[in-house]
Design brief:
Layout: H1 6-20, H2 26-93, H3 97-163, H4 169-188
Helix pairs in contact: 1-2, 1-3, 2-3, 2-4, 3-4
């Protein structure tokens, strides 16, 4: 997540505006560049925050689905134990209506187990899906962190062109880093 205060982007723009009034025709161009880079950095910083939240949400949902799957598998085991007890009771009861009743109960628990097993596997699949989603969001977050960092560096470098009038290389470097940061952010969503 970006540690930059929201007002920092405005401060850069304000410094650039002051420089624009100095009389050098190149300085307004640098000032506009800084303002544009600050807006792009703020936008990408917001995307970074959104991806962080999405990562946390997906991981939390994965934990919840895993908890449900665990509970469902425990329920499955309970049905299995009951089924086994009724099967044992049926075999010990010998032939007759009592054994048939026990056998019927064992069959009912067997049928219940199949539905419960399907539910548990579905919950496990949802866990895996949410974990994959969190990995995707985490990957985007990491790329966006690098992108917004490049943009912040580009803003800082561009201010050198204001502080040292007549020096253009910082502006070109800022444009390059700003383009790399913007392309990196676009790459995060490709």
């Amino acid at each position: 997540m970006s540690d930059v205060e929201p007002t920092e982007h405005f401060e850069h723009a304000e410094h650039a505006e002051h420089a624009a009034h100095s009389g050098d025709p190149f300085l307004p161009i640098v000032a506009i560049t800084i303002a544009i880079l600050a807006v792009i950095a703020a936008f990408i910083g917001s995307l970074e925050t959104i991806e962080t939240a999405a990562t946390i949400d997906s991981k939390n949902e994965a934990v919840l689905f895993q908890d449900k799957a665990t509970d469902t598998w425990n329920f499955y085991q309970a049905k299995s134990l009951k089924k086994n007890l009724y099967e044992i009771a049926a075999s010990l009861a010998g032939p007759g209506p009592k054994a048939d009743g026990f056998k019927s109960q064992a069959d009912k628990y067997d049928s219940d187990q199949k539905a419960i097993q399907l539910q548990a596997k579905t919950e496990e699949d949802m866990t895996e899906q949410k974990l994959r989603s969190s990995e995707k969001h985490e990957h985007r977050h990491q790329i966006l962190t690098v992108a917004v960092t490049l943009l912040h560096i580009s803003i800082a470098i561009a201010t050198i062109a204001i502080v040292r009038p007549g020096t253009r290389w910082p502006w070109y470097a800022a444009l390059t880093l700003g383009a790399l940061g913007s392309l990196g952010a676009a790459f995060a969503y490709s």
